[in-house]
Write a structure and sequence with these properties.
Elements lengths: L2 E3 L10 H7 L3 E4 L12 H9 L3 E4 H4 L2 E4 L6 E6 L6 E7 L9 E4 L3
Parallel strand pairs: 1-2, 2-3
Antiparallel strand pairs: 4-5, 5-6, 6-7
């Protein structure tokens, strides 16, 4: 499996067997920063990592967009600004195995 959208904001109530059997390359967790529920659960994040997934989270990575498939699969995060272009950072895969690349696109 290429991408798994993790259920219920990455709560601790995940089926670890399912996470391990689907073995996603990329796991997306939508959760708010400093939420009072403790989402995502460290146990869930660890289980995804143990299954080989690169875990991306909206509370730490910001808004995430995924496009492509197979070797062309990409995940980017956008930083919205009051003025000027949106700044997009490649989150996955890391370009050249190194730091993040930045690209600029006009606001819609």
């Amino acid at each position: 499996m290429d991408v798994l959208k993790v259920a219920h904001h990455g709560s601790a109530f995940q089926d670890a067997g399912l996470l391990h059997s689907v073995r996603p390359r990329l796991a997306l967790i939508s959760c708010g920063a400093d939420n009072p529920y403790g989402h995502p659960s460290p146990r869930t994040v660890a289980a995804l990592g143990a299954a080989g997934a690169r875990v991306l989270r909206t509370d730490t990575d910001g808004p995430i967009a995924v496009a492509g498939a197979g070797k062309g699969l990409r995940a980017v995060a956008g930083e919205h600004r009051r003025s000027g272009p949106v700044e997009w950072r490649v989150l996955w895969p890391r370009p050249g195995g190194a730091g993040e690349a930045a690209v600029r696109e006009p606001n819609d």
